[in-house]
Structures are given as structure tokens and as C-alpha cells.
Specification:
The complex is a heterodimer. By secondary structure, chain A is mainly alpha-helical. In chain A, 66% of the residues lie in helices and 0% in strands. Chain A is globular. Chain A starts with 5 loop residues before the first helix and ends in a 12-residue tail after the last helix. In chain B, α1 (8-15) packs across α3. The relative contact order of chain B is 0.10. Chain B has a six-stranded antiparallel sheet. Chain B has one domain: Phosphorylase Kinase, domain 1 (2-Layer Sandwich), CATH 3.30.200. Chain B is an alpha+beta fold. The chains are: A mainly alpha, B alpha+beta.
Chain lengths: 173, 256
């Protein structure tokens, strides 16, 4: 039996809480929803800690647990929180040059991405995971990570720059 | 030129710095000739930067009570009784890799933070003390500027101890990211080039003073202590007695 003692596990998990909060905030677009998500994820991780092998990357494992909690929440939500792109951006001011406006636009534009693209853009761009790590966290093949990343970033760029909706991208190899 | 055509995946990897250097150079050449791709790459890099500007403050923000230890109904409530007294020692040793330290604090969270102080100080020492060309951001020749700058960034009046009597000259200092905000590192060097670093971080709330505690992280020894809002850690690859002698001098200068 490989189950680490609860206190050992909790103390180790603690160092990743700020990172989990950062990712959750960007993922959910809402500060209190983000902390709910982190708390749910930590509770679940504590219960399921025997599935984590001591000595392996705890950060990646915690992100995996949190991602699964997030996906379940999104699926079970009566009304999907994914907003239509046009609606989300329609009454927004055009992006201006100051950082603050750009950040606000980014926050809104992120929420306009499909969850699976948003997650990849954030794991890679914000959490700075390698593609391989992101693939393991999301439990998808690396090719899927690459195509979601490519589509997500392009969509984000178009939203932020007020460009027309997507053009077909080159085939990802 | 007969390089392989650049794929979409490689453009992404270029943005994230995940391409081997040789291939990255080829992609850079491709971008010089393909304006549209270059614009996309620039926009994606800007996205990464904006993401970090937007959300990185959460890394330094205080963790809400319900996510912290010591909370009656927090996520690790079932664990809580175990966190009392010395049961946590095993946990912290596992976290930090630090052995041979003592603790007398009463709150688990505070213990963890204090151990982190030694841990991050030791890591910062290991990273910067071998630096030949850029050991510090601001040199000892601008000591006044250094102390003003770091005091401002940490939000507390810092003092730089002078350790000439102990045989160490100030090299300078730098700003570092700490667990909960900016931290400072001052570097000293003796005649033989042996370096010590003093790591300083500030807490929001004043904590009680603590005695010196010692931690050993690989080759780096650390004496650390709390003094009101300030936490100090003196690190060096010297023997413990020597480090204690200097730590004592630092403490006396900071608390005349």
C-alpha cells in the first residue's frame, strides 16, 4: 500500500496552492468560483491520494485532479457557462493600449474560448508546462494539445484584436 | 536554403521556447520572410506575457483561510488533528528536504512558512552565490540606493549589516520573488571568495521573535529567525560554527 500519510500529503500539496489558484482563476474567470474549484480539487486529491505515487510530480497530479473536477462541474452544470463568442465580445470596447484594458479583455476573451482550448492555452502559457506535461494533465495525446493550443491562441488573438471569426488553420502535424 | 518547412506545431513551440536551438534559428529565418506568421508569433507571445501580468499576482496573494491549514472546516479538516505537535515534522521534512531543524511554533501554517524561509533562502543561495559575472543586481558601491530600493519593494525599512569585522565584505543585493511577495538577498564575500547570503522577507502580520534555527540543505547551511514582520535567513557553504558566528553578528547589528 502506497498511501502517503494524510499530513505528509497535505503539507506537500500546500506549496502548490498558489499555482492552483492562479490557474483556476484564469480558467473560471471568477475569483470565488476559482477558490471553490481549488478547495474541491484539494479535498478530492486528499481522498484519492493513494493514486499519487510519492516521488512523482505532485504538481502535475494536482492539476490533473483539478482538471477532472472542473470538467465534471462544467458537464453537470444545468446551463453551460460557455458564452457565445459574439455575445461575449459584442458590447466590449475595442482593445486599447493600456495593460489594464488588455487584461480585462483577456479575461473576457478567455471565457469565450471552449474549455478545452482555454485549459491548454493556460497550462502552457500561464503555468508554463511543456506540451508533454499538459498532455498528461489533460489525459489527451500530445497532438491534441498542439491543435487545441493552436486553435485557442488564434481565436484569442482574433477576439483581442477585434478581427473576424476564425479562418481555417494549417493542418497541424 | 533546404530546411524543412515549418509546421504549425513548431510555430507554437517557438512561441513557448520549446524548440531545440538549431530548429528555433530556422524558424526565426522563416519568420523573417513570412510577415503573417511573424505577426501571429508576436501576438501569441504577447498573450503569454499578458496572462502572466494578469494572473501572477495570485501567486503572491494571501491564500484564503479555507484553503490554509489551521482552518476548522478546510479541505484538510480530516488531517487537522495530525498537524498538532511533532507529527508534522515528518511531513515538513518530506516537503523541504531539510533535516535537523527544530520547531516551537504553535500553528502548523506558521511552522511551514518558517521552514519555507530556510528552504527558499538555501535555494536562492545555491542559485546566485556561484555567479561570477552577475552575482547581484545592485553592487555594494551603490549601497544607499540598494537599501532604499529593496526597502521600498519589500515595504519595510531594511538595514544592511556590515560584516567586515567578521571578515566579509558586502558584494551587493538583489530582489527575489518570495512565497508571498518580494524578498531581498544580500551577498557577502570573504578574502578567499567564500560567499554568504542574507535572505530577508516581510510578512503582513508581525510574528513573535524566534531563536536561531539551523537547517542544512545539501551543502548549504542556513541559520534563520523571525523578528517581528521580518524573516531572516543566513546561508553559506561553511561550517556551522562559522555561520553561527556571522549570524550572531548580523542579529546584533539589526537589534542594537
Amino acid at each position: 500500500m502506497n498511501r502517503p500519510a494524510a499530513d505528509v500529503f497535505a503539507a506537500q500539496a500546500m506549496q502548490y496552492i498558489p499555482r492552483l489558484r492562479r490557474y483556476a482563476r484564469a480558467l473560471t474567470g471568477d475569483a470565488s468560483a476559482a477558490d471553490d474549484l481549488v478547495q474541491d480539487a484539494l479535498e478530492r486529491a486528499l481522498v484519492k491520494r493513494s493514486l499519487w505515487r510519492e516521488g512523482t510530480d505532485l504538481r502535475a497530479w494536482l492539476f490533473t485532479v483539478m482538471h477532472n473536477v472542473f470538467v465534471n462541474q462544467v458537464r453537470s452544470a444545468a446551463v453551460s457557462r460557455t458564452v457565445q463568442l459574439d455575445d461575449a465580445m459584442a458590447d466590449r470596447p475595442q482593445p486599447q493600449s493600456t495593460d489594464r484594458l488588455e487584461i480585462r479583455d483577456l479575461d473576457a476573451a478567455l471565457q469565450a474560448l471552449p474549455e478545452e482550448q482555454r485549459a491548454v492555452v493556460l497550462l502552457v502559457g500561464l503555468e508554463q508546462m511543456t506540451y508533454d506535461e499538459a498532455a498528461r494533465v489533460l489525459e489527451v495525446p500530445i497532438g491534441t494539445v498542439m491543435s487545441r493550443l493552436s486553435r485557442g491562441r488564434e481565436r484569442l488573438r482574433r477576439l483581442m484584436q477585434g478581427l473576424p471569426e476564425t479562418v481555417p488553420l494549417k493542418v497541424v502535424k | 536554403m533546404s530546411t524543412q518547412p515549418v509546421t504549425e506545431a513548431e510555430l507554437q513551440a517557438y512561441v513557448d521556447g520549446q524548440l531545440p536551438a538549431a530548429r528555433a534559428a530556422e524558424v526565426a529565418q522563416h519568420l523573417a520572410q513570412h510577415e503573417e506568421d511573424a505577426q501571429r508569433v508576436a501576438a501569441y507571445r504577447r498573450q503569454n506575457e499578458t496572462l502572466r501580468t494578469a494572473y501572477d499576482p495570485l501567486l503572491a496573494a494571501a491564500v484564503p483561510a479555507r484553503l490554509r491549514p489551521g482552518t476548522p472546516r478546510g479541505w484538510w479538516a480530516p488531517v487537522q488533528p495530525l498537524l498538532r505537535h511533532y507529527a508534522i515534522a515528518a511531513a515538513l521534512t518530506a516537503v523541504s528536504g531539510i533535516a535537523g531543524w527544530h520547531m516551537h511554533a504553535t500553528v502548523a501554517g506558521e511552522r511551514i512558512q518558517t521552514v519555507y524561509l530556510a528552504r527558499v533562502a538555501a535555494v536562492a543561495h545555491a542559485v546566485y552565490s556561484p555567479e561570477v559575472r552577475h552575482p547581484v543586481e545592485v553592487g555594494a558601491d551603490q549601497e544607499e540606493h540598494l537599501v532604499r530600493w529593496l526597502s521600498k519593494r519589500l515595504g519595510a525599512g531594511l538595514k544592511i549589516p556590515h560584516l567586515a569585522a567578521q571578515g566579509y565584505a558586502l558584494v551587493g543585493g538583489r530582489l527575489l520573488p518570495g512565497e508571498r511577495g518580494p524578498a531581498a538577498q544580500f551577498m557577502y564575500q570573504d578574502m578567499k571568495g567564500q560567499r554568504l547570503t542574507l535572505y530577508v522577507r516581510v510578512s503582513k502580520e508581525a510574528r513573535e521573535q524566534t531563536a536561531f534555527r539551523f537547517a542544512q540543505e545539501n551543502k548549504v547551511g542556513v541559520f534563520y529567525w523571525l523578528d517581528g514582520r521580518l524573516g531572516y535567513a543566513l546561508s553559506g557553504e561553511t561550517d556551522r560554527a562559522e555561520l553561527l558566528r556571522v549570524a550572531d553578528a548580523v542579529y546584533r547589528q539589526l537589534n542594537p
